[in-house]
């Protein structure tokens, strides 16, 4: 620190010795000071009585601060509230009651500000598994950097991340998933961090960045993060069992036990001497070797917590010199900033940081139309090239269509009553097929739940943008596929109705079935549940389309369900279309009817166009339900 700076700092902070603190702030412009005071977090959980809810306090009056250019380790026994604290500070909690104050610089931050200026690396990787590493980063750069930046600027950002995170070797490898091998766990973690830092956030949060990694890869990942903090970023990471090397890369340590803070201060030797000198350990307690410090500290607080001593530890810290130091540093920083003519770096106001951002206050960085284009280009285009994705949408029609053609070929023009019944059966099977195979559209939503939630939290798009992308993807594929199979069946069966009506009825039914699948995908807690629910629901609809029970024989107590049944309109439209030109009398079980339509109770039914309109209406109904469920229900509630 220069003499001039030293003088200014002394003027700002009085006679307290905060040199290391201010040093880091003045020297590193890219970070932001984060402080939190008396943070408590309470959720409602089930009580003993039926339906009763009781409050459960997960954090109690936690205070501390993270500084630019420093890494803070958030440690403590499993379940002590580390992730909860990180979520509260980073503004990612969407349930429960938060008390206390979190300041970014000297301001409370809105979600839109946090989306743009903080990065959050989740514990589990949330990447698009069929993109290559380079495409994943390019996709994120396009979605997170202002759309006014040029393509070259965005690609420079991608290249910078590839170089910084040492991803050169795997830049063209697909991310992969358990079924399709892709990049390694360590590489995936580095891509995840790369995705979070592509916008050069001021603050980076990491939840268990080393979980599931071997010690060498853990060291490597934390070294990368350390490099970022050396460049000025404010970094805070929850960490379970750090290697000695990793542990000592963290400058500061925040220890929690049962949601209470039991130590906040310098890491390593200082933390050890705090515990040895605070009077909470036995007199015969000995300092561990340096390489054992992390394990020693966590073992002690875990054991104390297990023996009901968390209150004692927390109270001891509240009375300690370290706690007083922490509070006075925080107060000084705030005072310094509110009186300084020029704000030190790291203490910029939110308003200043948002000043030249045309989308300030909006929860996404890029407009919806732009996000739609990027999602289509990177994700939908990839899906269209994926044989597994395509086959899930084609094979069902291939099998059902193949069986129908092999069983009923050439009967379309026959006026024989038996053949008309057979044709009605063929139409029934084809009209209801979309509902039975709709489960194939569930994974596209459910397997992406964590990714979707992470991208929403990161402000990449709005729920409606995501939903429209999903619809476009399915509609574009459904049009040629249904045209191909409807055309083949129509020709093979020698059908006589209007082909356009036959196809449109099937296409709209396919869209509606997709809407049903999307709704269940957003509504059901697990994929197994949804996979069971969608065909079961489709099965109930089959009873009331008019084939198994003629429409005029449906008992009054089921009539309502037959109107709700979108397949009924498909079947009626297809049947009228196919039979209205055939006026031969129809005989069945000794009874005579004017035509086959009379037998199925469809003689006086509404016109074809009305039924097509009804299916169209049901499509929009189910599309609306899917969107509402997706936007409202959050299965990864935090
Ligand atoms: N929404 C919630 N409702 C009820 N309990 C919750 C909720 N969120 C967290 N908890 C509970 O709060 C405690 C702290 O959870 P948290 O995930 O923060 O712990 P952690 O310290 O990160 O644990 P680990 O190290 O094992 O990941 C846990 O016992 C957890 O079950």
- What's the story with the biggest beta sheet? 6 strands, mixed
Number of helices: 26
Quick one: overall form?
Answer: elongated
The helix/strand class is alpha/beta
The percent range for strand residues is 5-15%
Number of strands: 11
- CATH top level of the largest domain is Alpha Beta
The CATH superfamily of the largest domain is identified as P-loop containing nucleotide triphosphate hydrolases
Percentage of residues in helical conformation: 40-55%
Domain module count: 2
Structure, described:
This protein has 638 residues and is an alpha/beta fold. The chain has two domains: 34-130 and 174-351, P-loop containing nucleotide triphosphate hydrolases (Rossmann fold); 368-637, no CATH class. Helices cover 54% and strands 11% of the residues. The protein has 26 helices and eleven strands. Helix 17 (417-436) packs antiparallel against helix 24. It is elongated. Bound molecules: adenosine-5'-triphosphate. The site of adenosine-5'-triphosphate has 15 residues, from strand 1, strand 2 and helix 3. The chain crosses the membrane at residues 388-411, 423-447, 475-494, 500-524, 536-560, 608-633. Residues 34-283 form the ABC transporter domain.
């Amino acid at each position: 620190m220069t003499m001039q700076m030293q003088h200014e700092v002394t003027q700002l902070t009085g006679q307290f010795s905060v040199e290391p603190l201010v040093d880091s702030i003045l020297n590193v412009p890219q970070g932001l000071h984060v402080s939190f005071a008396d943070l408590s977090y309470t959720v409602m959980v089930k009580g003993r009585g039926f339906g009763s809810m009781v409050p459960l306090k997960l954090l109690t009056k936690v205070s501390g601060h993270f500084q630019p250019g420093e890494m803070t380790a958030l440690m403590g026994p499993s379940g002590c509230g580390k992730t909860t604290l990180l979520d509260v500070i980073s503004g990612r909690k969407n349930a429960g009651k938060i008390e206390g104050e979190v300041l970014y610089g000297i301001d409370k931050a809105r979600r839109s500000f946090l989306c743009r200026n903080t990065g959050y690396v989740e514990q589990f990787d949330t990447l698009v598994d069929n993109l290559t590493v380079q495409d994943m980063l390019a996709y994120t750069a396009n979605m997170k950097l202002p759309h006014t930046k040029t393509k070259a600027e965005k690609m420079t950002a991608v290249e910078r991340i590839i170089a910084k995170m040492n991803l050169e070797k795997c830049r063209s490898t697909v991310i992969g998933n358990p079924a399709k091998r892709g990049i390694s766990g360590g590489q995936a973690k580095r891509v995840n961090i790369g995705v979070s830092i592509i916008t050069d956030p001021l603050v980076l949060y990491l939840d268990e960045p080393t979980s599931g990694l071997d010690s060498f890869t853990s060291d490597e990942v934390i070294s990368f993060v350390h490099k970022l903090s050396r460049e000025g970023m404010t970094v805070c990471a929850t960490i379970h069992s750090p290697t000695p090397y990793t542990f000592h890369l963290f400058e500061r340590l925040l220890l929690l036990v049962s949601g209470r803070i039991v130590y906040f201060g310098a890491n390593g030797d200082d933390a050890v001497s705090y515990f040895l000198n605070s009077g909470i350990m036995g007199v015969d307690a000995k300092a561990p070797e340096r390489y054992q410090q992390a394990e020693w500290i966590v073992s002690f607080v875990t054991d104390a917590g297990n023996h009901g001593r968390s209150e004692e530890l927390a109270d001891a810290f509240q009375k300690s010199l370290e706690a007083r130091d922490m509070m006075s540093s925080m107060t000084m920083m705030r005072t310094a900033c509110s009186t300084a003519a020029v704000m030190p770096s790291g203490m910029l106001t939110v308003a200043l940081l948002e000043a030249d951002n045309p989308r300030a206050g909006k929860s996404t960085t890029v407009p919806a139309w732009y996000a739609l284009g990027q999602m289509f280009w990177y994700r939908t285009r990839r899906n269209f090239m994926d044989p597994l994705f395509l086959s899930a949408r084609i094979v069902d029609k291939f099998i059902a269509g193949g069986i129908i053609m092999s069983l009923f070929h050439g009967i379309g023009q026959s006026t024989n009553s038996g053949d008309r019944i057979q044709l009605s059966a063929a139409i029934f099977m084809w009209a209801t097929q979309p509902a039975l195979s709709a489960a194939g559209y569930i994974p596209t939503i459910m397997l992406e739940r964590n990714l979707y939630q992470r991208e929403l939290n990161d402000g990449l798009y709005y729920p409606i943008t995501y939903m429209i992308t999903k619809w476009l993807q399915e509609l574009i594929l459904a049009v040629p596929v249904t045209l191909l199979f409807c055309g083949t069946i129509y020709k093979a069966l020698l059908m006589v109705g209007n082909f356009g009506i036959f196809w449109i009825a099937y296409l709209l039914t396919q869209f509606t079935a997709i809407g049903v699948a999307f709704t269940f995908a957003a509504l059901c807690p697990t994929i197994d549940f949804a996979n069971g629910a969608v065909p079961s629901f489709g099965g109930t609809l089959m009873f009331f389309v008019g084939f198994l029970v003629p429409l005029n024989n449906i008992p009054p107590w089921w009539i309502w369900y037959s109107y709700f049944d979108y397949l009924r309109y498909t079947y009626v439209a297809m049947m009228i279309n196919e039979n209205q030109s055939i006026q031969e009398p129809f005989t069945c079980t000794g009874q005579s009817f004017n035509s086959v339509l009379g037998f199925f109770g469809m003689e006086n039914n509404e016109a074809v166009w009305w039924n097509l309109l009804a299916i169209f209406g049901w499509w929009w109904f189910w599309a609306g339900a899917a969107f509402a469920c997706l936007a409202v229900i959050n299965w990864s509630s935090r």
